């Protein structure tokens, strides 16, 4: 079978050979004639490749000719690569020992002689191949090959074009999501359609829709084609929500953490491209678990799938995507094909043929548009003129799409680009590709050939990436804060094409031996790692992606021609010193491994271009001789943490073990280096800041730490940052630990670190100067978008930043001596007459979106500037417009602050905490009308929110008041907040009054109302919640003086979660039961006033058995209540039960009726003596018993808990008997056992580890 990639492979090999002969073989003596002959042979053979690639489909002899040529070209590349390595090794040796240049001359001469013989042999092979081409009547290519056209910068995010033809689908699905029935907890909507019909696109539009974002507090996007178990999906959900990789954990722990993340929040889950659910009952288990995790109503799962069977198994009424109309296909095509939007009449005439080829699939229209983009009319005619790839009008939509994709590949403008495209098959479907990593891999494989116009391989790679993106072969791009593309994905149908192209060279499950394995060059992420030893010609392997516990020295050395070795996310802890013998290696990735040390031999990899050891938390140092790796272009060795508002930098990235780490010596010798994310200054020569000065090609981001070791401005200036135009992100860090009387030179050092004007992001940390240098200005930082100044404890003034015209994000943290923020901050100058130097209206921080002021203990005043005097003696002046675009303001830990400006035109989010005086809050809000979120925490003197503030901000959706000890009441205007969704008052001990609603104003949008630790509150007005049809969550907890509570709450069917707990004086409890709460999923109730006896408490539960949706119940009783409400035993659907402070001595046998119970918790049951489970509870996975001082034994009935995974026992002083050894061993699913402060069990627990197979066992005495 013809190899679709062989032509491109041979092209790339031959072009590399030409460049190598020109650059590296000049110095070989006595073989100039052979080199000239080799160059001539290669040039002649190149002319035949196009014809051979076309004829190989039908002529086996031509196919064999191509394979022979491929083998010879590959061998030749290895020969020249060996010479290149030796040349670089010699260069390093001479540089390190300049006085010994003659040393080793004989051996080098012998090496040259060996290379000359090898070149002669290669030349003979190529001559024979050239002669065979004539025998086969191969025809040379006539005319120039296709050229790669320039990339228009405006097209870099072309994927973000408006979606066509799916407005109706989006609207219908949104309607279902936003208007589901009030009693529905979880709605599932499958979107089903052909591959390439736009299912994922529709889901993406909905997922990112502003109305959807407002409606769902949490959104999770997952793509996992097969559902084979529930746990893996839950785990991926948690990882998505927390942005952290999970360690191995039990399902119950994952569920509990998901409850922490999703509890009380409405969420949207998208499962994209689901192919298979096995068994079908697994879906119901998954959804039931989600319903138990979050009892809020209105949650939604959106599923996209090509398979009707999957769609029908998850919901009864799937949304089917129909094919697009011809007009819509033509519209999508035009977006892609015509750069300037102008369409000539003669090209419009071809429209019918184009839309016929699309078969109603938007991906087909998009790919065709990318294919014909920037093409001339004759090229359109060639492509559309009945070519066999697009002929066959009777094909189905997906088959036709596959042909279009194949055609798009064929018309890629260079063999190198075709190789780059095929390389995507190395990764699994739906993989999120990092753009820079892709380009570095392409470079290591030799696919990126510089030219006169594009001299850097990385720039060639960027151009290739843009072409693939414009041709719709890539999609779902992600952007950083500066709108640079960082990641992308590939449609699975396009990925299938890449797999088909590379399959003869890629090891996969179907590579069963023989000829197939002899051609293998690539071992990807999906290659079967347990079959790696079956590769019968390991010397052909050039790329190895392997996730394994260990890679042996023999295995490593057998792959002697490796260019790429990716061991990231594998379980390796060490790597053999033999890695230094892989002289062809250009890319090595050990990221996210437990590797503890790197062998020094790694520094002998003189061809290495990219080295990655990100997130290697056990790795303490890098080898000192890394300066010898003279081909290095990219080094990554950062540890990344989830960014945290309270993190010292807030941007959450550091290098390897920051405090112990020191740089390898003489990094300045790596003159090819472009990526060096972190540099730590040292005292020793070779580790000083001057090393950065030699690295003229640095680009991207750079953090410089240890700046306290730089002595003066001149030394800092030797980093030559001002001459590095491609660095767009800089961070300067000091680590002061000098004696107090030590002279601080931070001002001079920072002055010498002036960056290039292209800089976009700057952070300065722990700077102890008293002022900032003059280069903090619009003139010298015209492109600055983000700025963070933190730990500047000696600065009494903030630099003038208000005129930075593109600044969008500003954080000022830790200015401990700053007392006032005033006009100098805004950069507004006043002349001697009192007039502004600019007579026009002035804008201050014209584009700033987010401002953070934090940890300023001396700050008392923040002044604004409203009007600049004109100096004429009149009342006129120049207007000053402050913060016209500011949307988010955070003020934290500024206890003495008393005044603030009030000119914030569109502020949407205000967070103020740790401020003693209430005036800053009142000032900030006095003119606001745009607030969406208001968070007030620890404002000590705040007594009431002003009437005008609530009245004017009628769009307010979220209001939090926390830890405000003097806060007493809300004004009547609280009820004007008709958009309010959540209201939370917590730890406000004097809060005592909520007004009674009057007129027509009510909190009609309220979904969540929570009161915690408000001891001043005695009652809630009956009308507070009476007109809240959307109320879903209600929590009143630990309000010690609350006496009355509106009883109509117990009749609100919208409620899905109620917690009325620890209110010891509350005596107004429902007597009619809970039967009206038809949507209730979680209930936490009691204890109440002592006037509420057990009989009255039991009445509350009347009708609870009718609540089919109830899944979680927590009951708080009294120590003298010796029984449980009888209605409890009828809750067969209950999945979680907690019982606190009941006076029962044993668990009632009827508890066995709770056949769905998965979690049982017993707390402070001080008379409880024995726990036994005589009746089976088949689903109970988690059992926790704590603070039960009389508990003596867990009896053998525990064995009936066949699903038990986790058992926790805490503070049970008399507990001395556990089930027998035989019973313990029968708990085969037990994975987690904890025993805390149970002293009588000490002896038993000594032997317990031999009785139980639980991998996690903890005992605390």
From TrEMBL:
InterPro entries attached to this UniProt entry = Apaf_helical, LRR_dom_sf, LRR_R13L1-DRL21, LRR_R13L4/SHOC2-like, NB-ARC, P-loop_NTPase, RX-like_CC, Rx_N
Does the entry feature the keyword Nucleotide-binding, yes or no?
A: yes
- What residue stretches are annotated with the Disease resistance R13L4/SHOC-2-like LRR domain? 1032-1240
The alphabetical list of record keywords is:
ATP-binding, Coiled coil, Leucine-rich repeat, Nucleotide-binding, Plant defense, Repeat
Gene3D superfamilies in UniProt: 1.20.5.4130, Helical domain of apoptotic protease-activating factors, P-loop containing nucleotide triphosphate hydrolases, Ribonuclease Inhibitor, Winged helix-like DNA-binding domain superfamily/Winged helix DNA-binding domain
Record-annotated NB-ARC domain positions: 167-338
GO biological process assignments: defense response; response to other organism
Q: Where is the Disease resistance protein winged helix domain?
A: 426-498
> Where does the Disease resistance N-terminal domain lie?
10-97
UniProt name for this protein: Disease resistance protein RGA4 isoform X3
Q: What is the lineage of its organism?
A: Eukaryota, Viridiplantae, Streptophyta, Embryophyta, Tracheophyta
Gene for this chain: LOC107777344
